[in-house]
Amino acid sequence: MKTILISGEPCVIEGFLHEAGNVEELEVLRTFQEENEALDMVSRQEVDLAVIDLEMQKVNGADIGWELKKRNPDIQLIYLTRQQRSLMDLITLHPVAVLEMPFQEGEIEYVVESAYLLSKRKRKRIYARTFGHFDVFVDGRPIMFKSAKAKEFLAFLIDRRGGTVSTDQMINVLWEDRPNDESTQNLCCKLVKTLQRELRAAGAEEMLVVARGSRSINVETFQCDMYEMLDGNQKIRSQYMGEYLVDYSWSEGQTAFLDRFLHE
Q1: Is residue 104 located within the same domain as residue 209?
Q2: Together in a domain, 235 and 111
């Protein structure tokens, strides 16, 4: 796990690094004695775990946790303390653990393993990239769609963020130059089956929800850069360069919305 430590005490940093050397899952990227550089780092790059000294001199360690969560909602938190204290102000941050110093043998290893398991459970297998060119990844590998139209239909469903799409809407977006007749409606039915088949082959069939007369995407089954940005993920927000589903002209309305969202 890519990890940072925030503590104003050199002895705490030294003690943690000593224990961390025995934990295989732990990769300590940096240690910080003040929070500002740590917050900047989490905004710019991937960090899985933050270990935070609650008794910082200038700021409450719980407040640092809040700021880290704003920048990366998926980051796991472990707090360090020198004294028994009320944990009520920490509960809403869902820390993996609060460790009382000095550390007991094996404590760091145990809580890091717990954080690692929680992180794996949170991370979904499927990831949709909408910034720039559209792609969907399953376990880190892109789905190689045989049908470009099926890929475009999936992009449109993701753009709708779980909203249902009717046959008429499919025709208006995907076949805007064709009449809305029986032949084009049959094309819609075939396209839905094609997308189902392609997702099934990729192990991502749970993404698509098909009901009588409508189709939608199950937003709980995958991660998406656009969704995360709208949820306030600052790191994802910094990656948006004004390009969204650039291969599809129908995405221009959402691109304008995202641009406004960034400047609010």
Answers
A1: no
A2: no
50 and 156, same domain (yes or no): no
Q: Spell out the alpha helix ranges (H) of the chain.
A: 10-20, 35-44, 61-71, 107-122, 148-159, 167-174, 182-202, 225-230, 234-239, 252-262
pLDDT band at 95 (very low <50, low <70, confident <90, very high): confident
Query: Does one domain contain both 178 and 206?
Result: yes
pLDDT per position as a tens digit, 38-71? 999 998 888 989 999 988 878 888 889 889 988 8
| Cβ-based burial of 216 (10 A; exposed 0-12, middle 13-18, buried ≥19) | middle
**Under 8 Å between Cβ of 164 and 216:** yes
HSE toward the beta carbon, residue 82, CA cutoff 13 A: 7
243: tokens are 């390009």
Distance (Å, whole) CA 220 – CA 203? 15
Q: Which residue among 121, 150, 167 closes a domain?
A: 121
Q: Using 50, 70 and 90 to split pLDDT, how confident is the model at 84? A: low
How far is residue 154's CA from residue 148's CA, in Å, rounded to a whole number?
A: 10
Q: Which residue has the tokens 């046959």?
A: 167
Range of the domain at 100: 2-121
* CATH code of 175's domain: 1.10.10.10
Residues 179, 213, single domain; the answer is: yes
